[in-house]
Amino acid sequence: MYVLSELEKEYGWDKVSKWRILLVNAGGHSQRLPSASVLGKIFCAFPFGTPMYQMLEVKLATYLPFLDRMGPGIYLPPSDTIEVYDLGSNSYEWTFTSPGFTAIAHPSTLDIGVDHGVYVLEDKNVKGALAEFRNCLEVLQKPSIDIMYQKGAVREAKTNKYIDMTEPWVYSDSCFYFDKDVSRKLIDFYNKHSPLNCEIDAYGDFLQALGPRATKEYTKNISNVSTVDPTLGKMREEIFNLLKGTPLNIVCLNVSQFHHFGTISECLHHFCCNGALRKQVGFTNCRFSAMLDSSNEHLANGAGDPSPPKKSRQNLDEVFEGCVMHSVLKSGSSMAKRSIIEFCNIEIPIEVGQDCLVSNCE
């Protein structure tokens, strides 16, 4: 809300109301991924591209196909996820132009649903298309498996040419869009109540207010709130009253997955072990890196190095099982498969063990 208010001050509502705006929080001050705490998760490096791509660049590329489907409004994704999907060649029957909110949903296991938002849809039948436009009854935020069943969010295992879920599953959240009318409401609300003294969450406080079965009970739940301010309950209830009744439309991308990079464990998994994602996106073991011998001569180079290795040099992908990004290492170094070295210049042989992330060291 603060950002929207500042955009209006800087450019005026006449301009802002005509724009399609990508609004991504930086994801800074991260306790779960300390290596990203200075710049924020949105600027995390990935082991592909020349030079290496960052999370932001990947997001700009993956969201580009959505632009043609949008009118003026705000597209708000998480700062620490990658969404991979297939829209097909003739899937233009859905858009982001319906009034209110339009959210992307992905088929996910119940374990994923426990840590994310889960959509309870009006009709549990899955038509089996690449993309389906659905009405949403309510949004559950980090629900238990029992709650998912009680609320009717769980679907039975289903396997066809579009959906491949061999166990009970749900539609989980990732990115959402809201139109200029919602933007106007949020700006007016912020201008009336600023400065806010409590944390308002775009997922927990906006989406849970939507759908015909939404109630204000969630405003009392502080289990996922990092800092509880005395004004929090009252402010959340006011936002519920502000957004209650606003339409929530769901686009179920049935051939899609979202991958979360918010913790060290998740980064280790996706960079080092997730073969499906590595293939989909193009991750390599070593990117923009080199190994030097005792005379500081290059023995091996990683993919994307600005000075391509001579034929006699090894490829670093053949030397290490783990992931090395934008680093210089010394001959004789070794690392476990599930480990990451990034932005390091290490002039002695080192051994990096399992489940380690070494970042910005010299």
Give a concise summary:
The protein is 24% helix and 25% strand. With 362 residues, it is an alpha/beta fold.
Descriptive notes:
The protein is an alpha/beta fold and 362 residues long. 24% of the residues lie in helices and 25% in strands. The chain contains eleven helices and 21 strands. The strands form six sheets. The protein has a five-stranded mixed β-barrel with strand order 4-9-5-6-10. The protein has a four-stranded parallel β-sheet with strand order 12-16-19-21, covered by helices on one side. Strands 15-14-13-17 form a four-stranded mixed β-sheet. The radius of gyration is 23 Å and the shape is globular. It starts with a helix and ends with a strand. The mean pLDDT is 89.
Give the overall pLDDT as a whole number.
Answer: 89
- Termini, distance in Å? 41 Å
Physical arrangement of strands within the biggest beta sheet: 4-9-5-6-10
- List unreliable stretches of 5+ residues: none
> Which band does the percent of strand residues land in?
25-35%
Structural class: alpha/beta
Let me know the number of strands: 21
Query: DSSP helix count?
Result: 11
Shape: globular
What's the Cα radius of gyration? 23 Å
**Secondary structure: helix percent:** 10-25%
Q: Let me know the largest β-sheet.
A: 5 strands, mixed, barrel
Q: Could you name the key traits of this structure?
A:
362 residues; alpha/beta; five-stranded mixed barrel; four-stranded parallel β-sheet; 25% strand
Topology summary:
Blueprint: H1 2-11, H2 13-16, E1 20-22, H3 55-63, E2 73-76, E3 81-85, E4 101-109, H4 110-114, E5 117-121, E6 131-141, H5 145-151, E7 158-159, E8 164-165, E9 169-179, H6 180-193, H7 202-206, H8 232-243, E10 248-253, E11 256-260, H9 264-273, H10 275-282, E12 286-287, E13 290-292, E14 298-301, E15 314-315, H11 316-319, E16 323-325, E17 328-330, E18 334-335, E19 339-342, E20 351-352, E21 356-359
Parallel strand pairs: 1-2, 4-10, 12-16, 13-17, 14-15, 16-19, 18-20, 19-21
Antiparallel strand pairs: 2-9, 3-11, 4-9, 5-6, 5-9, 6-10, 7-8, 13-14
Helix pairs in contact: 1-6
